[in-house]
TrEMBL record, chain A:
It is found in: Cell membrane. The keyword Cell inner membrane applies. One of its GO terms (molecular function) is L-valine transmembrane transporter activity. This is High-affinity branched-chain amino acid transport system permease protein LivH. It holds the Pfam family BPD_transp_2.
UniProtKB/TrEMBL annotation, chain B:
Gene3D superfamilies: P-loop containing nucleotide triphosphate hydrolases. GO terms for biological process: L-amino acid transport. PANTHER family: HIGH-AFFINITY BRANCHED-CHAIN AMINO ACID TRANSPORT ATP-BINDING PROTEIN LIVF (PTHR43820:SF4). InterPro entries: AAA+_ATPase (IPR003593), ABC_branched_ATPase_LivF/BraG (IPR030660), ABC_transporter-like_ATP-bd (IPR003439), ABC_transporter-like_CS (IPR017871), BCAA_Transport_ATP-bd_LivF (IPR052156), P-loop_NTPase (IPR027417). This is Branched-chain amino acid transport ATP-binding protein LivF. It comes from uncultured Thermoleophilia bacterium. Residues 24-256 form the ABC transporter domain. Belongs to the ABC transporter superfamily. The lineage of its organism: Bacteria, Bacillati, Actinomycetota, Thermoleophilia, environmental samples. Keywords: Amino-acid transport, ATP-binding, Nucleotide-binding, Transport. GO terms for molecular function: ATP binding; ATP hydrolysis activity; branched-chain amino acid transmembrane transporter activity.
Length: 334, 257
């Protein structure tokens, strides 16, 4: 028999309230609902790419890598720098080919940078108390932000959008724009690729083994340091892709964009169950939706409440389901 | 560098172990956790083909000794030599590659992976697909129970089954030297017998074994040579049969007195 607890009742009440709000909005304006949902999906995809970097690293060394959002920011700057160097603009139809090259180069850039950060800043603290690498990560976040500040200047910088930006088709009076679809279309194969790497390749198996028991992994002949570096590289690759796509979606870059996006994505990772890959994607999509619905629906709190909303979700999840939606209740390692 | 003072090891019975060079030689090993010295100058030898056991009471330093050999803890002093190569302080994955595998204390199986995946991880360094398949089959021969649970999540298995898995997984590396840390820990008597039978069988198939045990009686029964560790130091050593009849051992470790 299941015990009905106060917490359980509160959770059910909350879900019912959210459902009522959704139905109310949907019945009033299905078109707005659709438009907003597509934005939500796009943002969810971007959050997912970033959230994976948090969750992979947390999964393997239990570090909240505060610098990860800023790595994503540097990805945006690097990608847009490459784009500017190329001298191309949206008028050239072959630009999307160029963009694929830029995404790939930026992924490699961020992957390498993340590996370097791990090597220089976190590995020397491997056996130190957990607080030490955590504080180092915060310091690393400041360093990366300052690099961004010097590189990009203190303000918002406009960047050319070369992703084809056109209405592809219309559903119920709502024009479906190509950019969100492209972003989702790039993200899904990346997520599948990552899943395949982690699930089926040898380095992926080494990652999962190390995440469960590092000493056990060593006894299997797994090079744990190399495996951790590989994990940072994977997280960096995803952040790099997110950096380019995000800059194209919002057509600006900013030295502190990583702070907000990082926090939201981190929340997504916690919502899904930190350390769990599918959880990070689920959490990211949920938060993308919630945020977009809140900002775009006729009866929503509006954009000024988005931050508060996201952090309320973080607090609620920590109270009601600290292991996250898909996380497992595993006892602390002994 | 301070070397440990002359050890006062009591040799029980004959120390003669044949003319073959030892496959593993630990000399004056000292291991620290922070400032605490857990292993205080341990010297042991394992000759090819032997089952050697390391017995001693809780906290004597048995696990720490095995961890140092496997490269999980760095020795502060002393040498560890395997097949003539100095391996002290090398990272764990290199030591596995050289041919030393361990079924560790606490088993350290990968609880969220299947039995099959755990066994495959045991062969992580190997690339001979066919050989790996053969060895999975061999492990299933040794422990038919594991075969029934091939797709079960290892973490949901019973303690005994997990112990079998830990041992099978270590065998998957095809080690020259297999180290077992308390393989009978927490098992029902029938299973204890099975484990020790398996240890003998694996040894008969050609694997040299270094085994840590609390169950001194059973360990001395299967081992050729034995060391008694006390407070981080080797106190007694000798052929297992000789130690089993030694008064001191019987009083302290075999529950007689
Ligand atoms: N991680 C650690 N940090 C600090 N001290 C430790 C640690 N691990 C072991 N020790 C200490 O080192 C000493 C030797 O421990 P070890 O685990 O090697 O003993 P053992 O002979 O294997 O004991 P048992 O039979 O209980 O397994 C003990 O005093 C123990 O408290
Ligand atoms: Mg022990």
């Amino acid at each position: 028999m299941r015990q009905v607890t106060g917490k359980g009742l509160a959770a059910v009440g909350l879900l019912v309230a959210v459902a009522v709000w959704l139905v109310w909005n949907f019945s009033e304006s299905p078109a707005a609902f659709l438009r907003v949902s597509i934005i939500g999906l796009q943002n969810g995809a971007l959050y997912a790419l970033i959230a994976l970097g948090y969750t992979l690293v947390y999964g393997i060394i239990e570090l909240i890598n505060f610098a990860h959002g800023d790595l994503f920011m540097l990805g945006s700057l690097f990608g847009m720098f490459l784009l500017a160097q190329s001298g191309q603009d949206a008028s050239n139809p072959a630009t999307w080919l160029l963009l694929i090259g830029i995404i790939a180069a930026t992924m490699v850039f961020c992957g390498t940078l993340n590996m370097t950060i791990e090597r220089v800043a976190y590995r020397p603290l491997r056996n130190a108390p957990k607080l030490a690498p955590l504080i180092t990560a915060i310091g690393m976040s400041f360093i990366l932000q300052n690099i961004g500040l010097i590189w990009n200047g203190p303000g918002q910088v406009s960047v050319p959008v070369v992703l084809p930006n056109e209405v592809l088709f219309t559903i119920g009076g709502v024009g479906i724009n190509s950019i969100p679809l492209i972003i989702v279309g790039v993200t899904i194969p990346l997520l599948l690729l990552l899943t395949w790497i982690v699930r089926s390749t040898k380095p992926g198996k080494a990652m999962r083994a190390t995440a469960q028991d590092a000493d056990g992994a060593r006894l299997m002949g797994i090079n744990v340091n190399r495996t951790i570096a590989f994990t940072f590289a994977l997280g960096g690759l995803m952040a790099g892709a997110a950096g380019v796509l995000y800059a194209q979606a919002v057509s600006t870059t900013r030295w502190d964009q990583g702070f907000q996006l990082g926090l939201i994505s981190f929340t997504a990772a916690v919502l899904g169950g930190i350390g769990n890959l599918r959880g990070a994607v689920l959490g990211a999509v949920l938060i993308g939706f919630i945020q977009a619905l809140n900002e775009g629906l006729p009866h929503g709190a509006g954009a000024q409440w988005s931050q508060s909303l996201v952090f309320s979700i973080l607090i609620l999840i920590l109270v009601f389901k600290p292991e996250g939606l898909l996380g497992e209740q595993t006892p602390e390692k002994v | 560098m301070s070397s440990p003072t002359a050890e006062s090891v009591t040799q029980v019975g004959s120390g003669d172990r044949g003319s073959a060079a030892p496959v593993l030689e630990v000399e004056g090993l000292r291991v620290f956790y922070g400032n605490i010295e857990a292993v205080k100058g341990v010297s042991i030898k394992v000759h090819p083909g032997e089952i050697v056991t390391l017995i001693g009471s809780n906290g004597a330093g048995k696990t720490t000794t095995l961890r140092a050999i496997s490269g999980l803890n760095a020795p502060r002093h002393g040498t560890i030599t395997f097949e003539g190569k100095s391996i002290g302080g090398r990272p764990g994955h290199e030591i596995v590659k050289l041919g030393i595998a361990q079924s560790p204390e606490g088993r350290k199986i990968f609880g969220r992976m299947s039995v099959q995946e755990n066994l495959e991880l045991g062969a992580f360094q190997r690339t001979d697909k066919d050989g790996i398949k053969d060895d999975v089959a061999r492990v299933f021969d040794l422990f038919p129970r594991l075969k029934e649970r091939i797709n079960q999540r290892a973490g949901t298995m019973s303690g005994g089954e997990q112990q079998m898995l830990a041992m099978g997984r270590a065998l998957m590396a095809r080690p020259k030297l297999l180290m077992l840390d308390e393989p009978s820990m927490g098992l029902a008597p029938v299973l204890v017998d099975l484990i020790f039978e398996t240890v003998k069988e694996v040894n008969a198939q050609g694997t040299t074994i270094l085994m840590v045990e609390q169950n001194a009686l059973a360990a001395l029964d299967v081992a050729r040579y034995a060391y008694v560790l006390e407070s981080g130091k080797i106190k007694l050593e000798g052929p297992a049969a000789a130690l089993a009849t030694n008064d001191e051992v019987r009083k302290a470790y075999l529950g007689e007195g």
